[in-house]
Write a structure and sequence with these properties.
Blueprint: E1 3-8, H1 14-23, E2 27-32, E3 35-40, H2 42-51, E4 59-66, H3 70-78, E5 94-99, H4 106-125, E6 139-144, E7 147-153, H5 175-185, E8 192-195, H6 202-211, H7 233-245, E9 253-258, H8 261-274, E10 280-284, E11 297-301, H9 306-309, H10 312-325, E12 332-338, H11 343-347, E13 353-359, E14 362-369
Parallel strand pairs: 5-6, 8-9, 8-11, 9-10, 11-12
Antiparallel strand pairs: 1-3, 1-4, 2-3, 4-7, 6-7, 12-14, 13-14
Helix pairs in contact: 2-7, 3-4, 5-6, 6-8
Length: 370
Amino acid sequence: MNLNFVAPCMFGVEGLLATELKRMGCKNVSAENGRVKFDGDENTLAKANVFSRLSERILINLKEFKALTFDSLFDEVKKIPFENFISKNDAFPVVGYSINSSLHSVPNCQKIIKKAIVERLKEAYKISWFKEDAAKVLIRFSIIKDSVCIMIDTSGEALHKRGYRAHSSIAPIKETLAAAMCELARIFPDTILYDPFCGSGTILIEAALMAMKKAPGLNRKFLSENFGFLNKNAFKNARAEALDLIEKNISFKAFGYDISDECIALTKENAKKAGVENLIEVKKQDVKDLKLPEDRLKVITNPPYGERLLDIKKAEELYKIEGKVMPELKGYGYFIISPHDEFESFFGREATKKRKLYNGMLKCSLYMYF
């Protein structure tokens, strides 16, 4: 079955995600604001879910159209061949959002879309009532400036939920953002990595998974595994390929530090759940005591800032300390994310390169020194 997909992602990550999907063999990959579109089949669906480090979800893109009235919304949705995706016993809840559109009432949009799907399936299956007690096929819609997109969610829980972080520190960095930072820093099987503000260990763990080429979704389940129209071997084959690609004998090593005993314990617990505990060492230490060896290494970190410390002046003092303990040496690479527009002046050096990224809804820059 040939399918069109859309993968939502954080703003600033679209180009990285497009490259990732091309590496997987996805076809007709195109990046847009906050999402990447691509084509493929059922195997593509499974592989993208299991392998993608940067996507938030993998959605089947059923149809896009303009709608200014509920009548046109109903008519266009009813034209979609839902019988190809929803069996007569499947549950098909509808969720979505509307931004700057004539059809601004989300509950009403949900009702109209649901009604259109029901009417379509009534005609297809020649029945008037649906039990909805089998597999769940989650229908998602977005309406932005009157442009409607109707999709099927194949992931279920968001893909940043890898399964290793049952607990987290205050203001944790999202797994997909940590992976994007590691991608920009270029993690290899022989990378030596430091994170002086490791929190619950997300950056360290994402880097370790990347170094050993372990697919982030290998140990979790996906909503589409129960879809009746999906080849049952698709996910089995994707996981088998993922297992074959894992490199266990690598020289990668990651060192994490934090001033919180709770964070150190969380990092150890999460690293063990992710299966990378042998690649990560953590201990309690203040950033002012950081001593970097004179060897090739990378620092990737998300230092506390005003909204986490509740005092922007303390964040600025931390930036000054970082600048002192992170020397300019050949072979060193520093990748520091911050929402502070004047980070470089406090750090004491102008970044080699900067990249706009979003930490949740907070606009940040990744300051790269190499």
